[in-house]
Specification:
2 domains; 21% helix; single chain; Rossmann fold; alpha/beta; 553 residues; Alpha-Beta Plaits; 12 helices; 22 strands; 4-stranded antiparallel sheet; 17% strand; 7-stranded parallel sheet
């Protein structure tokens, strides 16, 4: 998954390709400070009742999402959260930031292991782009064969709910819909740095984090003779920027992105993240303060409403299972939360009253990560309670005892923004790959001289878009015309059923208790695979199979 961003997802929403960013000091509400909150209305409360309660608690509504009862609110009242909790019309308030005040001592924590080193609808002869030979994931799910039958349909829209999407890459330009794309996450100075544009709302078609661009390429990079191609190379990609440049995913932007996707008629949404600042949101964890408990109840309610809303309006929801190498039905003590606003502390997790969102939310297809050997990646979450399917997410440490052990080729290669690679010192100011970037970054240019850049990442963040791409192929192949919005549509339950029915079944390994000691991992990474061949905790219903999903055998 992410956090952070790099399974949700990187370390993103906390969890998926992830790199986790953890503030070393809190940005707390103090008298005179204007604080930005996300407030969630209580079940059954009307918009008028919620509005009145927010005002009575000392808040000013900035934006409202009445469809799911979520409001962005500012307040200078240091007791706003407590007053909101006391209101019968509000579940609670989640603090996003103190405006103009930055937490100190940001520390990056890699939750995934080694994240980084250093004409639509018609099939045809299997084709490939120059870098496709490096995409072991395409072959593992038979996406290369699937394009003989189905390459995707332009009328099928896939939302990339992430840090953005660099539409300048020649592999993404042909499939990017600027018209449908939206940015719901303005830059936050304390974590994202100074704003690049007036109003702090980056234009669509840009990505200052990189994670979203990588995800988008795996889903639908064009099959156009340059760079590499995605699982569904002819579908339409829609940027839903709900994540900060720094990799945080907060409730308000994510909820707004999901409800927009529903109202806009998108077919599939990929979510390679978890919602910050809590890895697990609990209804009443004794380790948390009353205000933090209320905040988590608000996140739970807001996310469940948004996911239900999107599903009801025809959106197939795909999410990264997470990179915390744990059985989600038997979670360990959470030591990474909160990852924003205050220092993290140990939180024992009760599985019955705590949720990792969105992956444990309603209607989400949860995807675990496998490496080239088809073994579960050591970092990947698992467990029969939440898993749906498995997909290639990369595993740097795969191939123990062979020449491929701890090589970048075990990870997932995809599109990446030039700007971010330059900031990381992997590409110079002239667009040339540096010594540090050699072997980790690839550059390929069109005949017209337009160059795209590509790099490796690993995580369940990378597995989820493989599954989302297959879901898009299913809609392309079997969907019916959407006479209201144009394009195609297909009930999410039918998409999900086809995805599961055609997944390649894979039994648990023997012995079932898997140790990753030879890969250099501690006993904490030991994983017990439970279940049968048709469904188990490592692979769910199986490894997604694009070729079978569109009618191949």
């Amino acid at each position: 998954m992410r956090k952070r961003v790099v399974t949700g997802a990187v370390v993103t929403a906390t969890g998926l390709a992830f790199l986790a960013v953890i503030p070393g000091s809190a940005a707390t509400a103090e008298p005179g400070n204007t604080v930005d909150y996300t407030v969630v209305a209580a079940d059954g409360a009307s918009a008028a009742e919620a509005t009145a309660a927010i005002k009575a608690a000392g808040g000013t509504i900035v934006t409202s999402n009445d469809a799911v009862g979520v409001y962005r609110v500012t307040s200078t009242d240091a007791k706003f959260e407590a007053k909101a909790v006391a209101s019968g019309a509000l579940i609670g308030a989640s603090e996003r930031r103190t405006i103009g005040r930055a937490p100190n001592g940001l520390e990056k924590i890699d939750l995934a292991g080694k994240n980084r080193h250093g004409k639509g609808g018609k099939g045809g002869p299997a084709k490939a782009d120059p870098l496709d030979t490096k995409l072991w994931g395409l072959a593992a799910i038979r996406a290369d064969k699937a394009r003989k039958i189905e390459q995707g349909d332009r009328g099928v829209t896939v939302g990339v709910l992430d840090t953005g999407l660099d539409a300048s890459n020649p592999d993404l330009t042909p499939n990017f819909s600027k018209k449908l794309s939206r940015n719901f996450a303005p830059d936050l100075v304390d974590i994202d740095g100074e704003c690049e544009v007036a109003g702090c709302l980056d234009p669509v078609g840009t990505d200052d984090g990189g994670h979203g661009t990588h995800v988008a390429g795996t889903i639908g990079a064009a099959l156009n003779g340059t760079g590499l191609s995605g699982v569904a190379p002819d579908v339409t990609l829609v940027e839903l920027k709900g994540g900060q440049d720094s990799g945080y995913f907060f409730l308000d932007p994510v909820v707004n992105a999901l409800t927009y996707a529903a109202d806009a008629g998108l077919d599939v949404v990929n979510m390679s993240f978890y919602v910050d600042p809590w890895l697990y949101n609990c209804t009443a964890n004794p380790a948390d303060s009353p205000e933090d408990q209320a905040e988590q109840r608000a996140i739970i309610a807001g996310m469940k409403r948004a996911l239900n809303y999107a599903h009801a309006k025809g959106v197939t929801l795909v999410g990264a299972l997470g990179n915390n190498h744990e059985d989600l039905g038997k979670p360990r003590t959470d030591i990474s939360s909160p990852d924003y606003g205050a220092d993290p502390y140990p939180r024992p997790i009760d599985n019955k009253s705590c949720w990792d969102l969105p992956t444990e939310g309603p209607h989400v297809i949860g995807v675990s990560s496998i490496g080239p050997s088809l073994r579960k990646s050591d970092f990947s979450n698992y467990g029969t309670e939440q898993i749906s399917v498995a997909a290639p997410g990369g595993w740097f440490r795969d191939g123990f005892g062979t020449d491929t052990f701890q090589t970048l080729g075990n990870e997932i290669l995809s599109t990446y923004p030039l700007k971010v690679l330059q900031e990381e010192g992997l590409v110079d100011a002239d667009g040339n790959i540096t010594a540090d970037g050699e072997g980790a970054v690839f550059k390929d240019c069109t005949k017209a001289g337009k160059c795209g850049y590509y790099t490796y990442l690993q995580g369940t963040s990378m597995a989820s878009p493989h599954a989302a791409g297959v879901a898009a192929l299913i809609v392309s192949r079997y969907g019916y015309p959407d006479f209201r919005r144009g394009g195609k549509t297909m009930a999410p339950a039918l998409v999900e059923a086809q995805l599961y029915r055609t997944a390649a079944e894979k039994a648990c390994p023997e012995p079932r208790l898997v140790s990753y000691a030879q890969e250099g991992r501690s006993p904490e990474f030991d994983a017990l695979c439970e279940g049968g061949k048709n469904f188990n905790g490592f692979y769910g219903y199986g490894i997604v199979d694009a070729y079978a999903a569109v009618g191949g055998r």
